[in-house]
Structures are given as C-alpha cells and as structure tokens.
Design a protein that fits this description.
The structure is a single chain. This protein is mainly α and about 190 residues long. It has three helices and two strands; from the N terminus they run E-E-H-H-H. The protein has a two-stranded antiparallel sheet. Strand 1 and strand 2 form a beta hairpin. Helix 1 runs antiparallel to helix 2 and helix 2 packs across helix 3. The longest helix is centred in the middle third of the chain and has 79 residues.
C-alpha cells in the first residue's frame, strides 16, 4: 500500500546546469525501457524550455518596465528643457527690448548734438559714442536673432557691407578707447585692393 517499488529519475538541465528532476514512480517492479527513458528525457527538455520561456518573459517584463520608467523620465526631462528654453527666449527677448529703449534714446540725443560747434577731437569722441551705441543695438538685435534661430523663425538675407567704413569705424573706436592710452594702434586699408 503506497510503497514505491520502482523509480525513474531524469534531470531538467538548462544552460548547462541542473534545474530540477522529474521522477516516474511505480508500485511494482518496472523495467524502464529505452522508449520510456527517451520519453522522460523529452518531458525534462520540455520543462526546461518552459522554465527558459518563463525566465525570458520575466526579463522582458523587467526590461519593458525599465523602458517605461526611462521613457517617462526622459519625457519629463524634455518638458523641463523645453520650458527652460522657452523661458530663456522670453527673458532674452524682454531684456533686449528693455535695453534697446534707453539705447535708442541715447542714440537720438547723440544725433541732436550740433556737431558744427564741436572741436575735431570731441567730434571724434561723439562719433565713437554713436558707433558704440549702434554696436550695442546691433548686439541686442543679434540676441533677438539668436532667439529667432532657436524658434525656427530666422530669415537670412544677403546684405552689402562697406568693409572700408566698417574697418574705419571699428579701428576708430579702439584708437580712442581710454584703456588703450599707452598703446599705439594703427591700421591701413589698401584702396587699390578694396
């Protein structure tokens, strides 16, 4: 009653290691033939495949969860970055407008100064002040252009530049710069090459 007389054991092998055993038991004397042993091994192989499939499903679920978490974190990061860039653009646009107003006032007053009654040296200082103010307006416009580039609203157009005038104004500004009092500064423009 309930006593096992004969037993067949086969190993469940997965990836080169034993994962478990399958037992076939009988209450009487059994001569386990070759077909029965082959059948037991096939069952063990099938169980190994089931174990492997379950492990793969578990790993896939873990990977899917990690992908969801990382995707969610990336979406949050992108939203923060977009918001920060929008705030930066708004700030740059606002500040450039705020800076442009007093600069335009300064340029307007510089234009009102009667240059007929100013000596040559002070006239040069006045021109440098005008140029410096115009350069600042140009820099502020470039800041606005940068925010237009970021938002995809930049329109590029070709424009003629008077190189001689540009160089003259540029070097004139630095020749009278007070920090360069002890430095000699000279330039030449070859009109034949221009």
């Amino acid at each position: 009653d309930g006593i096992i007389i004969s037993m067949l054991m086969t190993k469940i092998i997965l990836e080169g290691s034993v994962q478990g055993y399958i037992f076939f038991q009988a209450r009487n004397e059994v001569d386990w033939d070759r077909d029965t042993v082959l059948f037991a091994n096939q069952i063990a192989d099938y169980v190994a495949i089931l174990i492997l499939n379950q492990r793969l499903r578990n790993e896939q679920e873990l990977l899917e969860e990690k992908v969801k978490q990382r995707t969610s974190a990336l979406e949050i990061s992108i939203k923060k970055e977009v918001k920060a860039n929008l705030e930066k653009r708004r700030f740059l646009s606002h500040m450039s407008h705020e800076l442009r107003t007093p600069l335009n006032t300064l340029i307007g007053y510089l234009e009102l100064i009667d240059s007929d009654h100013i000596d040559k040296e002070n006239l040069r200082f006045l021109e440098n002040m005008r140029q410096g103010a115009n350069d600042l307006v140009s820099i502020i416009n470039d800041i606005l252009d940068f925010s237009k580039i970021e938002s995809g609203k930049m329109i590029v157009s070709k424009q003629f530049t008077d190189l001689k005038l540009f160089l003259t104004q540029f070097f004139s500004y630095y020749q009278t710069n007070p920090t360069n009092k002890e430095v000699s500064f000279h330039y030449e423009v070859d009109l034949n090459e221009y």
